[in-house]
């Protein structure tokens, strides 16, 4: 937003005007308009890389002869402490003052409220629902009308009940956001970027509690010594799509009949349409003793950012003994990752001439090596090459780290289960995985706890304004970043069709891909859809391990992720049309 003219901010009185986000270039115009001081009420980093920092703005203000104060206020209820500090600044800074945040609502609430008084519902809603952004800011009249309607309804209801109006840090406008996206992982960021490229005026909020964003597909490479772990992480603030609002909070539940998302901090966010993509959680609690020994005693997992380097360290150190690699019951993220860890370690040991001294075993809770039969023969060639022992229907249930004993429940053909203890020198664990509790226990979930969708349209089967993609949706595709890349297009097109009352044309074919790193320098690129149907992107035999695909895995795919998928560039995507 630019404040090059006074029409772009709201003058509250002779002392103060409020504004949305300003830029460094706007400072000169502010000074020229006669303002003497600037107060920044927006926390640094809230708007991502497109938001200038307070230090940068302060330098520009000083150069223009203005005073500058930084008083950050998080989206939510305006506290007495912040309010008192704001009024103290107003008393000491030379005026008139321009105060800004993302839309001006927090600055307005700070100035309008007397210190020590209870926040009015209008002020609370205004401060908590700081959802306007420059691409689609609602007019002041619309905002005031919506706030007045909410206050009027609350007042009538509570007065009739003989109660005072409660104060909660909540946003209860039904139309607070056009779209709320639950989850700021690859699915959430990618679909938001694609939607904003299609329609930049959309008001979209992303609810994501984590400060860091990870490119998880490369962690297998980190564990194999072929990728630097620091290249797999960036600040969440730096990857939030421009024009979207980041709400840094945890979700606690949903009220789909009221179009509300509940946050763990007590706030409630309204939406017109909802996209559910929080990913799935690692259910370490299902393996007794594992959490006490992860990262030591030879126990590791490429499914954790901090431990993938430990996998590589253990691989380099092991010169003999027993190495166990485990795979839990499905579904899990990237079904091929457990065996990829084994292949890369074995390749290193073979190159170092120590593989013959290491007993390698792959324990899988499943009954087959890979779920798509076409890829089993080439994978078995590598199993034999590395002299690995395959044990199916074998599920890890307990780990004694100090004693280096792993306990498995093994099911025989009659369905009988026995417990077997196995010693190890190195243990790579793939954790059991499950839907997040807040989704599993909600009205959105199916019997397995995942967000229930039509697998072809990715629209919820019971709530027409809800869509889901990624690992948390119930579609029976493989849970990979490649699947997300294709699902983004389906959700973006169908959600907007639903918004406009148009017929759906985009149909998901179940595409997923698993680049199986069978050795350092070669990959079997498994691409398939629903029912195991092969869906190769390139006109080559997909069952052959190739150096080209290794280059894809190490170089091309990470670049496509950061520079394409997370920025709404839908390269190498394909959707099936109904017409």
TrEMBL record:
<keyword id="KW-0874">Quinone</keyword>
<dbReference type="GO" id="GO:0016787">
    <property type="term" value="F:hydrolase activity"/>
</dbReference>
<dbReference type="GO" id="GO:0070221">
    <property type="term" value="P:sulfide oxidation, using sulfide:quinone oxidoreductase"/>
</dbReference>
<keyword id="KW-0560">Oxidoreductase</keyword>
<dbReference type="Pfam" id="PF04273">
    <property type="entry name" value="BLH_phosphatase"/>
</dbReference>
<dbReference type="GO" id="GO:0070224">
    <property type="term" value="F:sulfide:quinone oxidoreductase activity"/>
</dbReference>
<feature type="domain" description="Beta-lactamase hydrolase-like protein phosphatase-like">
    <location>
        <begin position="11"/>
        <end position="112"/>
    </location>
</feature>
<feature type="domain" description="FAD/NAD(P)-binding">
    <location>
        <begin position="177"/>
        <end position="297"/>
    </location>
</feature>
<dbReference type="GO" id="GO:0048038">
    <property type="term" value="F:quinone binding"/>
</dbReference>
<dbReference type="Pfam" id="PF07992">
    <property type="entry name" value="Pyr_redox_2"/>
</dbReference>
<protein>
    <submittedName>
        <fullName>Uncharacterized protein</fullName>
    </submittedName>
</protein>
<keyword id="KW-0274">FAD</keyword>
<dbReference type="InterPro" id="IPR029021">
    <property type="entry name" value="Prot-tyrosine_phosphatase-like"/>
</dbReference>
<keyword id="KW-0809">Transit peptide</keyword>
<dbReference type="GO" id="GO:0071949">
    <property type="term" value="F:FAD binding"/>
</dbReference>
<keyword id="KW-0285">Flavoprotein</keyword>
<dbReference type="InterPro" id="IPR005939">
    <property type="entry name" value="BLH_phosphatase-like"/>
</dbReference>
<dbReference type="InterPro" id="IPR015904">
    <property type="entry name" value="Sulphide_quinone_reductase"/>
</dbReference>
<dbReference type="InterPro" id="IPR023753">
    <property type="entry name" value="FAD/NAD-binding_dom"/>
</dbReference>
<dbReference type="InterPro" id="IPR036188">
    <property type="entry name" value="FAD/NAD-bd_sf"/>
</dbReference>
